[in-house]
Structures
1.
Amino acid sequence: MKKKATFLSTLVGVVMFFCLWQLAALLINRPILPGPIEVVPLFCKNVTGELGLHFLASAGRVLAAVFLATLFAAPLGLALGQMPKLDRVISPLVAIIYPIPKIIFLPVIYVLMGISDISKITLIAMIIFFQILVVVRDEASGLKKELILSVQSLGAGRRALFRYVYLPASLPAVLTALRVSVGTAVAVLFIAEQSLTSYGLGYYIVIETYQVLLYPEMYTGIMGMGLLGVLLYFAIYAIELKVSKHLFVA
Amino acid sequence: MIEVHKLRFGYGGGVFLFEDFSLTIRRGESWTVIGPSGCGKTTLLYLIAGLQSPHGGEISINGEKIVRARPSTGLVLQDHGLLPWATILENARLGLKIRKFYGPDGKHSPVNVQVDSEKDDRRVQYWLNWLGIEQLRNMYPAQLSRGQRQRAAIARTLVLEPDLLLMDEPFSALDAPIREELQKVMNNFHAESGLTSLTVTHDIEEAVVLGEKILVLGNSCNRTPRVIDNVLCGEAATRGGAEFLRRCAELRDLLAAGNTRGS
């Protein structure tokens, strides 16, 4: 049984966050930590301009990566979960690759795939890919034999099993995997965007603002990236609530 | 109706659970299968359900050889097998959805099946009502008691109007009062519908309450079926009566005789 986050608890969290930020800004009182009173209005002003474009570039990359990773990982996970023999061959490899931080392949991917958005997207997709692969596989293989048998006895063949059992069984797992890995995805994006691009929040924060000491502007970028993570998290959470109702019933 | 002919089946190791095993089950009979664990009673059920294939001999239902799950055989397992992410109503409708998904192909759903959603809805409604779980239709399996879940699993099967009902230890995970109540429910059902049924159980009383014929399996290779005709079936009220207890004792002796491993 999962606990449902309420609108109120979220609001309380947001208010507390901004209060602490303001408090810290007042205490430290240096240019490197402007308070939200200064940053938030600037963010609202800039977000309709250049900052908005950086935000969209980053969001686009993450979403493309999420899409690509799900597209490849979910079917493969389902297949491995249903075919224990194949899984026995592949799972040692997956177990080795899974914990490796994929960001270390950044230079390799740049050289192999070229300096384009595709290489950045691939890098992020790789991270999400393994997260989804592992949970979908475990979910599919963890389905009770009785469940499969009794649905088969209702007439289901392979296609109906997929449609009525494997797909709905793994969807919540895919969403949970996405929700927990999207934070890592944004973090990797931040690093990947620091070079070889001219759009993206990572680029905006490090190259366009930090290196020229525009601290308040830098914070609008940080806010943007933070917001991107939060928005993705809650968007996926909202879909989860809809799709996995049975996990949230009292 | 069910013709088991010279069945041979084993799980390897050169040991067979069934060899040269033949059995006839006539339409409208309610059978129970009892035996020690590992004797192959569940296996026999799966073989008849078409979920496993015999190594030798054949099983036919209505003259048709079983090679895969037969669309008009209903199966209820000990673990209810309800989809955890679907409500009771959705679960009860699952079989109908699967039939709609394939259409009347004769393989996954009967050739003569007609898709009439209004009639289907009424039938789902009817069985949920009949089993007393109508008011739980919008709940998820996790919110129900075990007995209620088993009722839902039975509803899901009966909605498909099977001509044969197979049950594998359907009530063994339930508390005694609920088990006895559900046994009564199934007695009534059999009296009302006259459906051919085969129930696997390890419970002697249950075998006597539910089976007009009781098939006793032993845990060495089964060749000749040992079948008891049981007139007490369907009379859950006689439970505890002298004759009932005598029948149970008789069955217990038979079981002990078939158990070569000792206890």
2.
Amino acid sequence: MLYNLAQGPLVWVAFILFVAGSVYQVTRLLALTRKTEAHRWGRTPDAGPLSGTRPADGLSGRWTARLRLSIAGTQPLTIGVTVIFHTLLFLVPLFLLAHNILVDEAWGFSLFAVREKLSDYLTWLFLACALFFLLRRMLLARVRALSSFQDYYILFLAAAPFASGFLAYHQIFDYRMVITLHMLLGELMLVSIPFTRIAHMFLFFVLRFLVAHEYSLGSGRRVWR
Amino acid sequence: MLDRALTEVAASGKTTAVDTAEIKHMLDRHKAKIKISLRACVHCSLCAESCFLYTSHHRDPRYMPAYKFIHSTGLLYKKKGKVDRACLEKIRDIVWQDCVLCTRCYCICGIDIPGLISLARSICRSQGVYPDFTVSGER
């Protein structure tokens, strides 16, 4: 009963809420900002906060210096883990064989799939990254000082579908129960994206690329109304 | 010395009453920005090293830019402006004593932390809560 619900109507409900919620959030954000003519924080390519370089450094030297002066330079481990974590969060489910077989059966087309063994290793890697974030949040005073229940909740939402998918693939515990849980957790994650801090998935791009401020990436020309 | 000077509140025209409606009005004018910023902050603490006060205070988490904006403008927003003078005085210490508005803080998600701390300063100032740098009696 729950299995049928999770693999049928709830998938649609989750996708519709995810897409509609995300579109609503982004359009609302765009409505709250307006485009300006002038660049408020206009700067020449070599000016700005990361400009501690000299022409004599050469192109590669400048980029190394920029990297060293950025967060990647001060927190290389966390940045490395976060890049792997976020990349795998998208790529593993998209190119998983089992998911693509389901999509192919339903719609007659699918993305390419990577070898199951590789997906398995990448899931391990993803879960290790999630564990890193959990330990970081629990053990580092600076992160603990900012943490709330929702921070743990969104980490759980990201990791739980991977953990349950892993258990289902290896048929650990009762398969039907685990796969139902896997689908429900995946759906819960999708629904939560626009309405929790996971919204940083698109808020990041809006705030960094569209809104004008000192650290805009690209040519952010929007300001708050 | 500085700490002492900062904790001595300025004697101003406004004394004990806090005009919560005025605070609410000021917050409402920036509601979108505050709301989105609080939502976008993933509490990662990666902004910490960009604050020289954080690094020079033995990495005390209270000096992290995110901590400062969450406990000033963020707090005012969550309480919808319904705060008492004691709360404003705590916020005053955060936004003046723990932050010099050098605007060097870097948020990976693009949150305008200096703008939000600046707003908290404006709100405190509107209620006559601000640090007094003059020596008492020399006004």
